[in-house]
Amino acid sequence: MEYLVTTNIPWLVRVLQGQWRRLRRRMKGAVPDGARYLVLNFSGHPVLPGQLSAIEKLLQWPCSEVIDVQMGNVAEDRKFVGNVVRAIERIDLSPEQWQTASIVAVPAGYSAIWSVLLAEMHGRLGYFPDVVHLRPASSASSEKFEVAEIMNLREVRHSSRDKR
């Protein structure tokens, strides 16, 4: 019995998290049924309420859902890429949801991790996601970092193709 419980705990946690997200979205009620606006947070720091409202305002989203992707300590060994890819696999999204949800990403600070994450997301989405650029906030702000801009990597890629 103990074996069944301990091996199924991660699965049970994912099921409960999914149910909780669906319940929260239903309670908000402002989003059309099936539409998802996702902020994938790879930074390891929480997305603060002021940052979230700035993201929603810049993208003109009615409301959004933050998914914190825990990267943990990624060992610098030959399984580096596999460890980073497993972090993406822990995000509870089906292939259809990857294709239909509106997604913006808050990048990881470590460039090697972010490179693998960006490549993996491009493979799942079919395009580069939009990326949140954070900068230090003014001393008058209660938050240490503010949203500077949303970088559209698809436009960057498209404009750079003319330079080949």
Q: Can you describe what's shown?
A:
The chain has 164 residues and is of the alpha/beta class. It folds into two domains: 1-30; 32-161. Helix content is 48%, strand content 18%. It contains six helices and five strands, in the order H-E-H-E-H-H-E-H-E-E-H. The chain has a five-stranded mixed β-sheet with strand order 2-1-3-4-5. Helix 3 packs across helix 5 (111-125). It is globular. The chain starts with a helix and ends with a helix. The mean pLDDT is 83.
Question: What integer value in Å does the Rg equal?
Answer: 17 Å
Total E-strand runs: 5
Order of helices and strands: HEHEHHEHEEH
Structural class category: alpha/beta
The total of helices stands at 6
Count of folded domains: 2
Q: Give the CA-CA distance, first to last residue.
A: 62 Å
**What is the mean predicted local confidence, pLDDT?**
83
Overall outline: globular
Side-by-side strand order of the widest sheet: 2-1-3-4-5
Approximately how much beta-strand content do the residues carry? 15-25%
Largest sheet: 5 strands, mixed
User: What's the helical proportion of residues?
Assistant: 40-55%
